[in-house]
Design goal:
heterodimer; A: mainly alpha; 7 helices; B: mainly alpha; 3 helices; 88% helix
């Protein structure tokens, strides 16, 4: 009897030490991996010892399967990372919700939260009659969000850092909203530029300003997104270049890279949010042009 | 020398291409083409599969919540009703009990009154009877007194005036007058 009890106690104690050592082992393993990556990077960095920073090289569009001509149909790294974007959205929104559970799993919770987040945004900003356009806005939001986050994977390609991509998105929003405005309220849509609450003498001036600001919208809408991402990624690259050139003192720029990376994670989410909420605001102007 | 330098700078510029790959318009058709494909794919994935599914799940959850809330509300109503019924039954029982007690008390009171009245009657009858007898006795006694007084008076007369004939009738009248006094 006594021996059995002792055995039980002994097995319990070994259990606890086992989990502890497992946790320690995991930390050590991560540390070793990080060290290996840094050593690998230092060993293979061709610019080691000299300042060779090419922060814009990461944005180059390259054919995926060799060659150097880029026709409109050539599969490029753009294609690859757009495909990754589609896959990640598919994983989140379709595979995550596979269970269709009333009490959601973690993946389903994330899908439902993003759905509810954007849907509420559309409803709050653009009104209930904007809900038919929710799938389009949600498409834009998820695409930008996933592309931004995928761009944070080291050595990946950020599709949304290209003005071509964001300009197409912004132009799509701009033309859709403008056409929608004219279809919904005919020439009444032009009252968007005629500020009825201002004194009559000011109204023509304000109309010109409003008109200019309306046509500047797609420009700011697209450049805001692409510029933010491009700048952040370029800064990351510059700091990484410093790290490569400084040898052991490179630890300081590496810490800087870590900090900026955290900032970039924020920027990725915030820019997706900003793009989406501005889309909602423009949509609201199209559906309710009267101030 | 100068030529060399310019050559160098040209080659460098050529190597790194235009300053920003973003402004390399040659890649634009490619990017736009693949972007449009990606957006269409995402749109169809969302609108055909993901959004209806999530909407259904949310609606189902909302329905379950509403049903549960309604059921809880109904159960609460039932509990309140049960409580009210219990209170009512309690109040009824209490009033019934007090009614019965009142009735019993009234009945007892009535019986008691009747008994007291009967006793009073009996007592009165007994008293009257006693009174009658007392009166009778008193009358009898008075009569006896008169008789005795007449006898004594007759005796006294015969003692005072022996041989004198006693007029019994006059004597009785005189005694009666004296007794009545």
């Amino acid at each position: 009897m006594r021996t059995r009890r002792i055995k039980v106690v002994a097995s319990e104690s070994t259990n606890t030490t086992g989990t502890q050592s497992k946790g320690n082992g995991r930390v050590i393993a991560y540390g070793l991996i990080a060290l290996a990556v840094v050593l690998f990077g230092l060993a293979y960095a061709d610019g080691y010892g000299k300042l060779a920073i090419a922060p814009m090289d990461q944005f180059k569009v390259k054919p995926l399967f060799g060659g150097d001509t880029i026709a409109w149909y050539t599969p490029t790294n753009v294609t690859f990372w757009l495909g990754m974007s589609i896959l990640s959205i598919f994983a989140l929104m379709v595979m995550g919700t596979r269970g269709r559970a009333v009490v959601p799993s973690r993946g389903q919770s994330m899908a439902e939260l993003s759905y509810g987040f954007v849907r509420k945004m559309v409803e709050d900003v653009a009104g209930k009659d904007a809900l038919p356009y929710f799938p389009f806005i949600f498409t834009a939001f998820l695409f930008i969000l996933s592309a931004n986050f995928l761009g944070l994977i080291p050595s990946s390609f950020t599709t949304t850092s290209h003005i071509a991509v964001t300009a197409i998105l912004a132009m799509g929003v701009f033309f859709t909203v403008t056409v929608l405005g004219f279809v919904k309220s005919g020439f009444g849509f032009l009252s968007l530029f005629w500020v009825a609450s201002a004194p009559l003498a000011l109204r023509p001036v304000l109309a010109i300003i409003e008109l200019i600001s309306y046509f500047v919208r797609p420009v700011s809408h697209s450049i805001r997104l692409a510029g933010n991402l491009m700048a952040g990624h370029a800064v990351l690259k510059v700091f990484a270049g410093f790290a490569g050139a400084m040898g052991l003192a490179g630890i300081a720029p590496i810490l800087g890279v870590v900090a900026i990376y955290g900032l970039e994670v924020l920027v990725s989410a915030i820019q997706a949010y900003v793009f989406t909420i501005l889309t909602c605001v423009y949509l609201k102007d199209a559906l309710h042009p009267h101030h | 020398m100068a030529e060399n330098v310019t050559n160098d700078s040209v080659s460098v510029a050529h190597a790194s291409g235009p300053g920003m790959p973003q402004l390399d318009f040659a890649t634009f058709p490619n990017q736009i083409f693949w972007l449009v494909i990606a957006l269409v794919a995402i749109y169809f994935i969302l609108s055909r599969i993901a959004l209806p599914r999530i909407a259904a799940v949310l609606a189902e959850r909302q329905g379950a919540l509403t049903n549960d809330l309604a059921a809880a509300e109904e159960l609460k109503q039932r509990a309140v009703a049960a409580e009210a019924a219990y209170q009512k039954a309690l109040a009824d029982a209490r009033s019934e009990a007090s009614k019965i007690a009142d009735e019993t008390r009234a009945a007892i009171q009535a019986d008691l009154g009747k008994a007291i009245a009967r006793a009073d009657d009996e007592i009165a009858a007994k008293t009257a009877e006693s009174e009658a007898r007392i009166t009778e006795i008193r009358a009898g006694a008075l009569r006896s007194i008169e008789d005795v007084a007449a006898d004594v008076a007759g005796d006294i007369v015969s003692a005072v005036a022996p041989g004198q004939k006693v007029d019994a009738k006059a004597l009785a009248a005189a005694v009666a007058a004296r007794v009545k006094g």
